[in-house]
Amino acid sequence: MIEIFKYHYSKVADKVRESIDELRPYLEKTQKITLSFSFWLALVIVAVLAIMWLGKSTWKYLTNRSTFIVSPVTFSFDTPDWATDRLINEIKNIPGLKREYNIFEKDLTKKIAEVYENNPLIYRVYYIERELPNMINLKLELGRPIAIVKRKGKEYLVDKDCVRLPDEFYEYPERDENPVYVICSRLSRVPEYGEKWEDRSIEGGVNLLNYLKYNGIDKLLEIAAIDVSNVARRLKSGKSDIILYTENGTMIKWGCPPSCERPNELSNYEKLQNLLSVAKEEGITLANMEYVDVRWKVPLGKRISVQ
């Protein structure tokens, strides 16, 4: 039995050896092909890496040239007449801007936009675009003075959001226009430049001026001042919270601003219609009127007495 097993084992082993001998040429050929492929693959990878490195180095060399450097100091702006040279210089040197930028710098426009958006002198950044080789096109909306707050003999410039503005940065009043004053005798903290004036009465006066400007009434009736000293003082004397004054001295008793939420108080729209109805009868400048009271359903008024 053992002899038979040895015999069969020997025959199988011989066949395996014969098969290996037959396959050896193919295995050797496959091994050569694999080695050759690996060599060429490694050569291609090295070549690609070398090209990438060379390209990156060349790109870095070319883009780092002074031709592609832009500096905020060299920015030029097409500005309105009411912006002074000091304001333009301030915009060029806003804290947070770098002295120089490479035009190819990653997220360049985003970085510059974030600096401008966080500055109180600038309301909005409409767009910032690169222009080769070393130009940046940008459109900004600047804070614009709307009135002068007059308080305890001192004057402060404010914008439409009641934010205090530096006087030296703006030409106010603008050319061929007269200033509008918001008069307030109440005590309140004077804000720093770029801060909002946290005073209910002053904010009410500025908001009313915005409303009048939106409807073109400030110039139509030549509004010169808005006195807000009596806002929300709960007066029982019948005095108006807000009083407007025209250039010719006519007094317009406007009443309480919408923020007071006083019962039965007319809306700004209703008061404006009352004012326009009186102006239609008495003349647009109200020059013959001592005062006009628009707080009631039917407006009241008093003509200047002629001696």
UniProtKB/TrEMBL annotation:
The keyword Membrane applies. Keywords: Membrane, Transmembrane, Transmembrane helix. The chain crosses the membrane at residues 33-55. This is POTRA domain-containing protein. It comes from marine sediment metagenome.
